[in-house]
Amino acid sequence: MDKAQLKTKLSDLPVADLKWFAKIGSTNDEALAWAKDGAKDFSLVVADEQHQGRGRYNRRWVTRPGAALAFSLILRPAPLEKEQAALFSPLAALAVRQALLELDLRPEIKWPNDVLLNRRKVCGILTESQWTGDQLDAVVLGVGINISPEALPPDPDLLFAATSVESETGHPIDRFHLLHQVLNHLISWRNKFGDADFYQTWRNALAFRGEMVQIESKERAMLVGVLEDIDPQGSLLIRLADGTSSMVMVGDVRLRLSQQ
Ligand code: BTN
User: Fold this and answer.
1) 54 lines ligand 1 (CB under 6 A)
2) How far is the CA of 247 from the centre of ligand 1 (A)?
3) Whose CA is nearest to atom 3 of ligand 1?
4) Opening angle at CA 257, ends 115 and 117, nearest 5
5) Distance, CA 230 to ligand 1 centroid (Å)?
6) 101 alpha carbon to ligand 1 midpoint, in Å?
7) Cβ–ligand 1 contact at 112 (below 6 Å)
8) Which among 72, 73, 141, 201 is least surrounded, fewest beta carbons within 10 Å?
9) In sequence order, which ranges of the chain are alpha helices (DSSP H)?
10) pLDDT tens for each residue of 163-191
């Protein structure tokens, strides 16, 4: 795949501008720099390989050539989107989920924004923002999808069980068609940003509902309880052992199944 081929593949989508790299440090770094330089809404950075890919909580995200999808999409948030900035990661998760549904898979969304297949992580999302003072100028949605088993890091490096799209479908897939579908669905879900359908679909796709989970964050003691629900703002509701509910806001928090 080269830039011209990718451009043709995405030609029916309103991608403002496209950068393609055979190898790069991190598509999110490139996209953040590009956003600062004035990139338009829906500009896209795609790479075949990343050698300094980043995940949440400053973790490394490995992208091996030919084995994964790694891209970062620059959005210029509209005023109403700025008021619900916590929903950008779920926006990407909903789009990835829908593209995977089309492959006859049964994706779930692990709050706030990992996508799972058979309870294993197939996609990670790193959303980063660019501010001028208190003005949100740009949001970068960084998406990494494991396409083939080669995309997975060696077992000891894995904090959470992982899988790939092809391990689940049992046959090869066209990763650039998947990219096309994810972007296409992202456009549709963006038109419904935060509305009732957006919220209900996210709720219905939520992994681990009714199961014991633990929530870790730097700011507060670990919470253990039953994952009850999410609210329309994207906060998680956990039922604690004493019967009360606790609300966890999206942020630098991590969720695990309690027995892990
Ligand atoms: C996570 O699960 O921790 C998030 C992983 C996000 C990885 C993607 S790959 C494309 C983009 N560029 C990066 O450096 N990170 C994101």
Assistant:
1) yes
2) 26
3) 55
4) 25
5) 24
6) 21
7) no
8) 201
9) 3-9, 27-36, 79-82, 88-101, 165-169, 175-190, 196-204
10) 999 999 999 999 999 999 999 999 999 99
Q: What is the mean pLDDT of the chain?
A: 93
> Is residue 21 within 8 Å of 45, Cβ to Cβ?
yes
Residues in the chain: 260
CA distance to 17, 40, 114, 120, 147, per residue, from 4 (Å): 12, 20, 31, 34, 22
Taking the CA of residue 59 as reference, the ligand 1 atom at the shortest distance is 3
Phi, psi of 258 (to 5 degrees): -65, -35
Omega prior to 156 cis, within 30 of 0: no
- Cα separation, 88 vs 132, whole angstroms: 19
pLDDT in tens, 59-79: 999 999 999 999 999 999 999
Per the CB < 8 A criterion, the answer to whether 74 and 31 are in contact is: yes
167 ligand 1 Cβ < 6 A: no
DSSP secondary structure, 166-221, as one string: HHHHSS---HHHHHHHHHHHHHHHHTTTTSHHHHHHHHHTBTTTTSEEEEEESSS-
Strand-pair partners of 114:
110
Nearest residue (by CA) to ligand 1, atom 11, is 142
30 Cβ contact partners less than 8 Å away, ≥ 6 residues apart? 19, 21, 24, 45, 47, 72
